[in-house]
Design a protein that fits this description.
mainly alpha; Ubiquitin Ligase Nedd4, Chain: W; single chain; two-stranded antiparallel ribbon; 43% helix; two-stranded antiparallel sheet; 10 helices
């Protein structure tokens, strides 16, 4: 095998050129072309002289502190600087020979041919097979070979030995492929059924289950257009349809009972027992507050339904107490703010004639209450009582506001005159008087809702592009 100064040598059989490394001289290698095993030519490298270390490293027997000593001190005791324990200096370890991997000798890489590559099952079958074994003490998973059956395996964690008794029984895995001849066959003699045609589900007719509710929904869908003057035409329709008549009667009865209760309590208690009047007064105040919250919920429900153009109360107030309180905030805040200017004028203007103070309070309340309440509902908050868009309607639609104020003043004066006449004619007509007052309140909010509907439609027509 001739060599070359470029560290190459030739194969004896095929003449392939192979590289030469000086440290591989005298070792076996395999030709990459023909596969013959050859001896690498050249002089064997001289072994390096073993050098003795000057210092020895070891650990303290007590605290495991790392210590170091000179080779001359082997056999002597060294004192630990941490715990003070004396540890004998051990001799230096023997040098280990460097092992080179087998892949460094001979042919290192190879590629399978197109038809020479084995199947994956064949490659897996050549690999050594291991079986799981669990430690009997700490349940650590270990692995053993088949030839280790009957031997004891030491656990790497706890050191306990576990006997590998027998090989586990392996279950045969059935192939997912269908054998030849067992495939599914179609019988062409059988007539296949026709494909069903999809039919969309039809809406269920709920009239037979809830005839009254279906009639209300149909009436809600068939609402007509706004009349020419909503403040005059169709105002009475909601007042005579359920549940407003029942709500009016209940509100009137509750108010009559409260007035009767407080009047009888004041008549039966003499001047010496005025302190006892606080008890019926507090009870009446509590029931009056509950009645006001319930009435406010119905008033605003009438207003909202009327502002949408409905002639029936389709969504009456529920039985949730907190909803009543929230609706009451709107009415109380709007009413308090409306009468505040008249109260201040009555209080700080003493030169007014008799009767001018109450008249100022009534005029301010009648004029500002609808503006504040509609602004609160538009803004969605009882504390936001001013709406610039609603305020502009006072200038754009003054006739609509004037008609509403005229009807409101006529309703207020007519109700007050009727109640005063009944009380003068017979004090026992308290129930009828209260019924008139309750009906007038619902009529007022009905008119206010129709006004809001009229204003909303007028603004929508003005904002449409030409």
């Amino acid at each position: 095998m001739p060599t070359s100064p470029t560290r190459l040598f030739l194969c004896d059989d095929c003449g392939a050129t192979l590289p030469v490394e000086p440290e591989h001289a005298g070792r076996k290698c395999r030709c990459g072309r023909c596969g013959k095993i050859l001896i690498v030519p050249g002089d064997s490298p001289k072994p390096r002289p073993e050098t003795t270390p000057k210092y020895i490293g070891f650990n303290c027997l007590l605290c495991d502190t790392r210590l170091s000593a000179r080779v001359e001190d082997v056999g002597l005791n060294a004192k630990c600087p941490d715990c003070g324990r004396l540890t004998k200096v051990p001799p230096p370890p023997k040098p280990r020979q460097k092992k080179k991997p087998e892949a460094m000798h001979g042919q290192q890489y190879g590629l399978w041919g197109v038809d020479e590559a084995p199947m994956a099952k064949e490659i897996a079958a050549r690999q050594p097979k291991f079986y799981p074994v669990w430690c009997r003490v700490c349940d650590t998973l270990m692995h053993a070979r088949a030839e280790q059956v009957g031997e004891k395996l030491a656990c790497p964690d706890c050191g306990a030995k576990t006997l590998f008794k027998k090989l586990p029984v392996e279950k045969e895995v059935e192939s997912a492929l269908v054998a030849d001849g067992e495939e599914y066959q179609l019988d062409e003699t059988v007539e296949l059924p026709k494909r069903p045609v999809y039919k969309p589900p039809q809406a269920r007719d709920m009239s037979e289950y809830d005839p009254h509710g279906e009639a209300l929904r149909q009436e809600y869908r068939d609402r007509g257009a706004m009349p020419t003057n909503p403040l005059l035409g169709g105002v009475y329709k909601m007042l005579i349809r359920r549940p407003l008549p029942e709500a009016t009667i209940v509100l009137a009865v509750v108010l009559a009972l409260e007035l009767w209760f407080i009047s009888s309590a004041m008549a039966n208690i003499s001047g010496a027992g005025m302190i006892l009047l606080l008890v019926p007064f507090m009870i009446t105040a509590v029931f009056g507050l509950l009645s006001l919250m319930a009435a406010s919920a119905f008033w605003l429900a009438v207003l909202k339904e009327s502002s949408e153009g409905n002639d029936r109360l389709y969504h009456p107030p529920g039985a949730v107490f907190m909803d009543w309180m929230w609706e009451c905030f709107y009415v109380v805040f709007a009413g308090s703010l409306a009468v505040a200017p008249g109260m201040l004028l009555w209080r700080f203007a003493p030169s007014l004639p008799i009767g001018a103070g109450p008249a100022a309070v009534a005029i301010c309340g009648l004029g500002l209450f609808p503006i504040f309440l509609l602004s609160q509902l538009e803004n969605g908050s009882p504390i936001e009582f001013f709406s610039p868009q609603l305020a502009r309607t006072l200038l754009k639609c003054p006739g609509k506001w004037l008609l509403f104020y005229s009807e409101s003043a006529l309703l207020l004066s007519g109700s007050a005159a009727a109640i005063a006449g009944l009380q003068l004619a017979s004090p026992q007509m308290l129930a009828v008087s209260v019924l008139i007052a309750a009906g007038a309140s619902f009529l007022y909010f009905r008119l206010l809702g129709r006004l809001a509907w009229w204003l909303a439609e007028s603004l929508a027509m003005d904002e449409e592009p030409n």
